[in-house]
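W.,

You were right to be curious about this one. When I first looked at the sequence I had no strong expectations either way, so I just let the prediction run and decided to look at it fresh. Below is the sequence, 157 residues in total, followed by the output.
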Amino acid sequence: MSHRRLNYNLEGVDLGDDTWMNNLPPPPPLPPTPPPPKEKESEPVYKIIVKDEAECLKAQEEEARESYFKGFISHLKYSEFDWTIPIKEFKAGKCIVKGMDCQLTPNMAKNVRRHFLSKQHMNWDEKMRQKAEDEAKMAVDQPNPPANANDYQTKVW
């Protein structure tokens, strides 16, 4: 559907007295211009500040290891992981779970998945869960020590 455009030729037409426009109050001031939007800060590439090339490489290795294993270890909620294992030990099959002395083949995803789903790792994670619960329970059961040693003394008036 098209609309017809209306063209008015007002040339020479007397539109009346326009002095009323001179008596209008001034327009309100324009609102202040908002500041430009801040640029979204990008997430840091590295979690640590690197000082030299060797440190940079080490940080990249740790991040790569963590990124690679994330999908394989998400079910191990209570296990702690050591991302700082030297690359030689890692390539030799040292497991990234702290406290465990087991071997894994890091170059085959199927073997890695099977390794972290093993009974040994599931039992370890359960042991770490119980340990965390026991520590939390002990923290709740422990009375808070007094802030000042003088609080133990009985004051006689």
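Here's what jumped out at me. The radius of gyration is 36 Å. And, maybe more interesting for your project: Residues 105 and 138 are 38 Å apart (CA to CA).

Coffee later to discuss?

I.
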